[in-house]
Amino acid sequence: RMETDCNPVELPSNMGFEEDSDYRDFEGTDVKDMRLEAEAVVNDVLFAVSNMFVSKTLPCAEDVAYINVETRERNRYCLELTEAGLRVVGYGFDQTDDRLQTPYHETVYSLLDSLSPAYREVFGNALLQRLEALKKESQS
After folding, report:
1. Is the pLDDT of residue 32 over 80?
2. How far is Cα of residue 31 from the mean position of the Cα atoms in its chain?
3. What GO annotations for molecular function exist for this entry (predicted)?
4. Beta strands in 2-138 (DSSP E)
5. Which residue intervals of 10-53 are DSSP H helices?
6. pTM for the whole structure
7. I need a labelling partner for 46 at 20 to 30 A (CA). Which of 16, 36, 111, 121 fits?
8. In a domain, 7, yes or no
9. pLDDT in tens, 94-140
């Protein structure tokens, strides 16, 4: 298993490359880098948890990244992100326990939904507010 540099590549925003473009075929570029995926996961749901960040301690590679999350209930988890999905691998920041046999979740939403009732409430409220805003937009 080859580890890669964990710093996300800074691409100029005017490049306009699509994920399904020929760009990913270039030697040395890995558009499906799990660290970039992990950063996207964090940015998606950070508003609905107390704290969440990609681990700088645990090794990330092309096929795996680790995310630390603290729910609004103050429970801490270490999540593993792979092509198979997300799962809890530890009960503390930067902690993994090989004995844990937790199920994979296809999305961060379903994983957090199963761990945190407060997440479910905050996320649901945000969704309702967005729907209300869309409703007002369509009426004007």
Report:
1. no
2. 16
3. kinase regulator activity; protein kinase A binding
4. 51-54, 65-70, 76-82, 85-90
5. 34-45
6. 0.73
7. 16
8. no
9. 999 999 999 999 999 999 999 999 999 999 999 999 999 999 999 98
- How many residues appear in the chain? 140
The pLDDT confidence band at residue 27, using thresholds 50, 70 and 90, is very low
Cβ-based neighbours of 77, under 8 Å, separated by 6 or more: 68, 69, 70, 71, 88, 90, 91, 92, 115
Query: Cα separation of 41 and 54, whole Å?
Result: 9
Task: Give the other-Cβ count within 10 Å of 75's Cβ.
Answer: 14
Pseudo-torsion of CA 95, 101, 106, 111, nearest 10°? -60
Helix, strand, coil percentages, rounded to 5, for the chain: 40, 20, 45
Q: What's the DSSP call for residue 28?
A: T
State residue 94 phi and psi, 5-degree precision. 55, 25
Query: Which two tokens mark 118?
Result: 């407060």
Count of structural domains within the chain: 1
Is residue 3 in a domain? Answer: no
Range of the domain at 87: 34-138
| Rounded distance between C-alpha atoms, residue 39 and residue 83, angstroms | 15
Would residue 12 count as lying in a domain? no
Instruction: State the Cα–Cα distance between residues 43 and 88, nearest whole angstrom.
Output: 19
